[in-house]
Amino acid sequence: MAKPLMAKATAVWLVDNTTISFKQIADFVGMHELEVQGIADGDVAAGVKGFDPIANNQLTQEEIDAAQGNPLHKLKLKFNPAASGEEKRRGPRYTPLSKRQDRPNSILWLVKFHPELSDGQIAKLVGTTKPTIQSIRERTHWNISNMQPIDPVALGLCKQSELDTIVQKAAAKKAAEGGVMSDDERRKLVSTEQSLEMDSAPKIPTAIEGLETFSLSDDGSEKEDDEPIVDADSFFNLPKDGGTEEDEDDLRP
């Protein structure tokens, strides 16, 4: 059963202004009977001002009269047509004023690193509109030159679990369509938890691709056409004592 607003203050008013039993008041406001008795004794809710349920459209005088005349009568909250039929408001989520200036940066991050996300998913995630997202995608936003891509989780605009959920939905949709994904796209479609569980595989840079089998060590093989290796010391073996006897004879006149 629905409970009245300001239950304790309503109980104070009913204790002070009616002869309804403590059990009836306790059942109406959702408190224990001993708490209502403590209010009557002044031990509970000291200094709390009574809240008039009649003036605030929560009880009728006829309902109070019926409860005072019959100790077994249960008080019923007055039906308020204005409170019925309310639906949850749909649209972009509320973003605090202090974080609204960071919202375009988060949209730029999502557009750049998760292009598979639809405008509706991004709008629901960070609380924005589709025209804003479209202008950032097309780089026609009035402040696009000053924007920097920043993770919306780091900005506090959404939770990591919410981002992972829409990324997983995008991955499932991509797989259902049967499209071929590149390594970069596959990495983007993986949630944070899944990426942390993966083994880190070293990747060879394209600049040195094909040199992984290159070795400077000599394998002992020598081609037939190759010339024999000359000892480096032989180039520095100079004649002793300034030359041989034949050289001296050649130098005599």
List keywords for this structure.
Cytoplasmic protein, 253 residues, 2 domains, 42% helix, mainly alpha, TrcR
Describe the model.
This protein is mainly α. The chain has two domains: 7-83, no CATH class; 87-196, no CATH class. Helix content is 42%, strand content 0%. It contains twelve helices and no strands. The model has no long low-confidence stretch (mean pLDDT 75).
The number of domains is: 2
Query: Mind summarizing the main beta sheet?
Result: none
- The chain-level structural class is mainly alpha
Dominant shape: elongated
Could you report the average pLDDT, rounded to the nearest whole number? 75
Query: What is the string of helix and strand elements?
Result: HHHHHHHHHHHH
β-strand amount: under 5%
- Distance, first to last CA: 137 Å
Low-confidence residue ranges: none
Number of strands: 0
Tally of helical runs: 12
CA-atom Rg in angstroms: 43 Å
Pfam families: TrcR (PF06242)
InterPro entries: TrcR
Protein name: Cytoplasmic protein
